[in-house]
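hi support,

uploading two proteins for the ticket. first:
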Amino acid sequence: MTDALRKLPLSLQHVFAMFGATVLVPLLTGLNPGATLVASGLGTLVFHLVTRGKVPAYLGSSFAFIAPLALFVSKHHAPGQAVAGLLSVSIVYFAFALLVRLVGFDRVRRAIPSVVVGPVVSIIGLSLATTAVTVDASTHWDVAIVTLAAAVACAIAGPRALRIIPILAGIVIGYLYALARGLVHVGQAASSSWIELPTLHAPVWSLAAIASMAPIALVTMVEDLGHMFVLNEIIERDVTRDPGFGSILFGNGLATLLSALLGGPAETTYAENLGVLAMTRNYSSRIIQGAAVIAILLGLVGKVSTVIESVPAAVVGGVGILLYGMIAAMGIRHMIEAKVDLTNTKNLIVVAVIFILGIGAPQNGIAIATVAGLLIYWLLPDRTQA
């Protein structure tokens, strides 16, 4: 019991890190936020079961499927068709998981050089910069600065108890500051119910839904690979080898299948939570699993979920600046440790194209940039040595 209480703040950090993005997807698509939280928690637990607890990652709502989900749920009022589309996504994941196991990930990994991996890792963090700064922090810059300063101070100069939970400490201090400023509104908690159960929808098979969602799985799998590269840098262990990228894909596919049946969106590994890992240097999967259990409870308890939703966007932006920046720095570190030669013109072009496409492309920029970087690296000749 004592150990569980000690890990509770560490798990709460991960809950706050994923909460905003995970809840935003159902708000944009018409899905139920409570069901989405329950699905993310159960999906994460299933993912950890499949990967044998060797991949400390949290699975939350994928942004890649917002457009088709909004089309079938909000516009066409056909949640059953959306479920069918998401089930097809899980099937694509299963098929590629089997393919990776048959072919062997080593062949896949050899095709992806460090000059591509490094900048892809960086743009995973940098692509979230606009969300952290323009969307969230800019709503109230003073709140964001107080939150960021508190998190940094706790991480560097705080007592040991705070150094292991700097993100949570920053959020609490930022929240209290925002509360004093009159920027926190929790009035809805009084009117919300205590228990809210997900509304289940049976799949209604639709070729249009399947055609609009299944191909997007190829994009999210590339993003998953990028996230695993980030995780490898953080924990200094290659999870694509053990438990293997095939297991990771299968776990993600199973999480998406479960989420679809519960009325949630597609699931994907979260860069936000990778930032928490990098910041705290605590890589225990038990802590992530604790966050998953908390997410399930929040999805079922309406009043508690409403209070957490009251955390101002500026507080989220303040910690986001730190978390996303840590991920970007990891990519630079990877290139340094891999001794990538940036005096080589071809290497410099690869990095340049990945950065600009990854940050500039409004939709699926990470996947587009990864493919572009690989094509340049493998198809263009290297004449710098001639």
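and the second one:
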Amino acid sequence: MSDSDTIMILGAGIAGVHAAENLRKEGHQGSIVLVDRDNQVPYDRPPLSKQWMTGETDDSGVLLRHPDFYEDRDIDLKLGEEITNINPVRKTITTKDGFDYEWDKLMIATGSKLRTLSIEGDYLKGIFYLRRMADALAIKQHMQHVKEAVIIGAGFIGAEMASSLKQLGIEVTIVERSAYPMENIVGRQVSEYFLNLHRRNGVEVMTEDSVVQFNGDSEVQEAMTAGGRRIPCQAVMLSVGVTPNMELTHPQLEMENGYIVNEFGETSIPDIYAAGDCTSWPYHSGPIHVEHWDHAVNHAKTVTKNMISPQSSPYTYTPYFWSDQYGSRFQYFGHAKTWSQIIQRGSMEANAFTYFYLDDQNIIQAAFISNQAKNALPVRRMIKQQRPIDPEDLADDSISLKKVQRSLA
């Protein structure tokens, strides 16, 4: 690749910004063009439902980089630009306004987009989705006069929002369609732990129910459920998950649960790469898709190395995400769609435990950690090693995890 080549990055979220930064760190001297449809200087989304919402972090604290960062590194930041077409033959992209931009190599880093619901009365003021800074600003302003709020969906974002709103003194009710939220990710016991955690902190959780109607004049005043419950509220947060943002298409661009990439971040079209939440990438026995901050950063950094020096750096990342709720820190490592057994280490009653998800060969596929940060490093290493382990050693608190991990080496 020539030092004078133009690299264009579509999406100025976590992956896009870290990709642009890493291209300069890796020595790319050519043009870097970072394009995003949002008009805001690139910002970090996770704090919007946590520290920023509670006032612990101000507006500048959620910026991914100071505005001067882009000029200092000669990164051409183009905001408010919506891309409608990719031409891999001419190596151009076309914006909604009809402008064409040329590139030598292209990275798609469009992230994810919200799932939405259609519920009677959802036009009323006070009903929100949280994805962009503009959403967060509207929510924060509205919440100043709210006493009761409803959150639809008990996933990690909904749970974090419940924690933040309780911290602001608002009465919160969560409505969750399933009996055990996130059971497919963390298992029944950890799911029950989360339900009890919400309830211990004064949040009402309604499971196996769904909101079917909102009532009010111009502003929402009540949410009605399929089970006949009527919940007074002046604000509603819909948090029903996200999907990969694959709005940019081309007949030759392979997509399934994300833009399909190989271990180097290459798509099915030469010189077009993809990174972050919008991708489906190879992991152990097959392709996976995850929507995690840590993955977006590390994937972007690895893929940029391959854009400069093709197929030089395979991506061997262990998925990781964290969640802060009610003063606790939860961490999840690995990726397990199914498991043969779960091993507990520590105490749920003390809110300090680690759960290991093992396959039928006693190999750790994933682990969930509650308030045991010291376990993070050995857990990550054990998952990466992919070797059989003695379940009794995992459960035995008298044996350090570092010692257990070293025994696998």
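thanks. also noticed: The chain has three domains: 7-113+243-308, 116-238, 327-406.
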